[in-house]
Amino acid sequence: METGIVERNYVNIEDEMRRSYLDYAMSVIIGRALPDVRDGFKPVHRRVLWTMHELGNTYNKPYKKSARVVGDAIGKYHPHGDAAVYETIVRMAQDFSMRYPLIDGQGNFGSIDGDAAAAMRYTEVRLHRLAEAVLADIEKETVDFHPNYDESLSEPTVLPVRFPNLLANGAEGIAVGMATKIPPHNLTELVDATIALIKKPSIAIEELMQYVPGPDFPTGGFIYGREGIRQAYATGRGVIQIRARAAIDRVGRGSQERDAIVITEIPFQVNKARLIETIAQLINEKKIEGIADLRDESNREGMRIVIELKRDAVPQVVLNKLYKLTPLQTSFGIINLAIVNGQPRILNLKELLEAFVDFRREVVRRRTEYELRRARARAHILEGLNRAIDALDVIIPLIRNARNVDEARRWLMGDLATIKEIKEWKGANQTAANFVAQIEKVMARLRFSEQQAQAILDLQLRRLSALERQKLLEEYEQIIRQIAELEEILASEAALRRVIIRELEEVKKNFGDERRTQIVDEGVELRIEDLIADEDVVITVTNSGYIKRTPVTTYQRQGRGGKGRFGAAAKNGDFVEHLFVASTHAYLLIFTDDGQVYKLKVHEIPDAPPAARGKAIVNLINIPSDRKLAGIVAVRDFSDDHYVVMVTRNGVIKKTALSEFQNIRSNGINAINVDEGDALLDVVLTDGKKRIFIATHDGMAIRFDEAEVRPMGRAARGVRGIELRSGDYVVALCAVSKDDHERMLSISEQGYGKQTPISDYRLQSRGGRGVINMRTTEKTGKVVAVFPVEDDSEVMIITQHGKLIRIEASEIRKTGRSASGVRLIKTEEGDKVTSASLLEASEPDEVEEQMESVH
């Protein structure tokens, strides 16, 4: 009995594990998890798009069942589970996942709440129109193809994208020992940066960042700080902070009205439903206080999460806690890892764009070579057809006498060996021998190629008409021009770059859009002003110290002499004493009659309807209860070239640089030293180049150059501005220009008013008695307000009982200084005008539309 000896090859297990693991790792890295730097796709994305292209499932064709696409993809190219392929299709159709979706889906494709898409048998898909720019020219041999998994079909190794898709839509994947996380960007910005790189190959990353300032997420939001963006663009790695877009608003009506935080955009990849659950959990655990209600009011028009606050809650504080404790603020770690020439590499911004440009250059070159080959082949055939048409008298009998197509083709190619065997030449008027000799002579000169001979045999008789022959000539001339253009592209790098740039500009024109994600400069924290609309509001302050703000559009414009509408209702003898207009993004410098100044942000003033009283100002700033407000100035920047001019009731004036009021303590600082028995009356802001206009209660006024009042420190008393008669006092302080184009509007206690050119008030020296401003009588009452107006100005007037009216200045009569004016508002018995203010001009139609929406 013989025993066989089995020969075994032993392998070191460590070597085998190392080799097998490396093979597995490279398979995952190259074939599954990481995108190609050229087209920005992983194999599964590429195969899905190619499958839909093969199916003719384009944007201008009917939708097809998702199951059909999935079946073709896994059956032909992607031998993996159908769930993975369908998930890929779903993601490429979600506008909250892809900055530029490549698939147009019909049906339930999930939501930002994390809801799963419907089963593939229920949904339908087709390529998005943008996919045209992804698959354009793929049939023109622009990219390489390789066999599919069973070598029965071929699939593209890369898609000939016309825009930097890797950066436009981003990518995310976890491979073996490495991961990629590339954020999406704005297509318009990417195209501009790519064109700049093509025109200037030596461009620096800092210059590219002028075109691409940072990522642009499909869900919007804010990016805070540019340092993380700079690191990512310079090194390929960086971390950025993303915050939701929220706003402080008022919700509810009447007594139920309160502050609320309204969220309209959330960070990228944050699940809205889980976000709301997290907030609710924190409320239940009392980690966040001050929230009265939480509800999701999102609909098909957009996202809206309303966080209603308790009455004593400070919105900014609550919002900051939400940012700190919830996914309303998240970090996004950028890793620009992609496959370059078959190897994974981390790339900076310029390298990513250079890789695309190099790929695009290769695609355009290969497409041009393909089109040139086709053009030359067509030109060759057209040349043969044109020569054949010129020799029809010989070619037609030649074809008629051929025994078959192959013989006719050989004869047209010049192989006339068998032609002499023909005894009788059909259709010839000469003897066969003589005519054959003529044929041989002509064909020796023409001698068509095989392609030309076949085209001649395929030529239809209708092409022999004069018009069709002319079309052939025109086509030939056009092909010759096309060949010249294609040859120029291949011969000139500049021409090739022009083609790439032109196609990039076409993509930008057709698919470019505005940036969605706002970038806040480095070191700038989110201010509450960033969350509040920049709009003008009417601020009213009552005699007893109640303050509120109301949108200007709430007050409807009326004609002169109207009854007005009720604003803040008088209560316990209280009445509106100050009224003016300011932006919600401005600061208020609040001056009290004792010369102190306090600072308050406009948006911190409670928003209330016109009939509401408002909130006690002592609850907002630390003003002593026995002090009265003298003046309020709205400012945005505390610059050195602007000044605060103050005047007291007894006519003392003082000018101080605005920059001295930048740092104001919560309990205020001293603005002017006021004499005993006097009080600060009014305050204005100037640029140092104005003229000062002071008006008194008894109808006097003085005008002098602002230069006559030198700047003084905050501790100074001031100088005399106007000499007052016994019993008279200052009621208004104005800063007017030197070109004398203004008209001064004076308003009296009984609602009379008039406009007078500023030039009627002669220029005097500071400290004089002035001239008559308005003739006051028992009918008109004393002067209560004076300020400059123009024809398109609007004026708001308020009475002691809280009645308001909004009228155009153009409706008020223009008269001289000594006139009494015309009635502007009807005052009831016991009522009188207490304040008036100038509003910004608005278009009448727009205001009326806004009024209708308010009422």
TrEMBL record:
A Pfam family that the UniProt record links to this protein: DNA_topoisoIV
Annotated region described as Disordered, given as residue ranges: 834-855
Biased composition (Acidic residues): 842-855
The reaction(s) this protein catalyses: ATP-dependent breakage, passage and rejoining of double-stranded DNA
GO cellular component terms, A-Z: chromosome; cytoplasm; DNA topoisomerase type II (double strand cut, ATP-hydrolyzing) complex
GO molecular-function terms, A-Z: ATP binding; DNA binding; DNA negative supercoiling activity
GO biological process terms, semicolon-separated: DNA topological change; DNA-templated DNA replication
InterPro entries: GyrA, GyrA/parC_rep, Gyrase/topoIV_suA_C, Topo_IIA-like_dom_sf, Topo_IIA_A/C_ab, Topo_IIA_A_a_sf, Topo_IIA_dom_A, Type_II_DNA_Topoisomerases
Residues annotated as catalytic: Y122 (o-(5'-phospho-dna)-tyrosine intermediate)
Domain Topo IIA-type catalytic: 34-531
Coiled coil: 469-496
The keyword Nucleotide-binding is assigned to this record: yes
Alphabetical keyword list: ATP-binding, Coiled coil, Cytoplasm, DNA-binding, Isomerase, Nucleotide-binding, Topoisomerase
Keyword Coiled coil appears in the UniProt entry: yes
Family statement drawn from the similarity comment of this UniProt entry: Belongs to the type II topoisomerase GyrA/ParC subunit family.
Function, in words: A type II topoisomerase that negatively supercoils closed circular double-stranded (ds) DNA in an ATP-dependent manner to modulate DNA topology and maintain chromosomes in an underwound state. Negative supercoiling favors strand separation, and DNA replication, transcription, recombination and repair, all of which involve strand separation. Also able to catalyze the interconversion of other topological isomers of dsDNA rings, including catenanes and knotted rings. Type II topoisomerases break and join 2 DNA strands simultaneously in an ATP-dependent manner.
Subunit and partners: Heterotetramer, composed of two GyrA and two GyrB chains. In the heterotetramer, GyrA contains the active site tyrosine that forms a transient covalent intermediate with DNA, while GyrB binds cofactors and catalyzes ATP hydrolysis.
Remaining remarks: Few gyrases are as efficient as E.coli at forming negative supercoils. Not all organisms have 2 type II topoisomerases; in organisms with a single type II topoisomerase this enzyme also has to decatenate newly replicated chromosomes.
HAMAP family, per database record: GyrA (MF_01897)
Alphabetical list of PANTHER family matching this protein: DNA GYRASE SUBUNIT A, CHLOROPLASTIC_MITOCHONDRIAL, DNA GYRASE/TOPOISOMERASE SUBUNIT A
Name of protein: DNA gyrase subunit A
Originating species: Pyrinomonas methylaliphatogenes
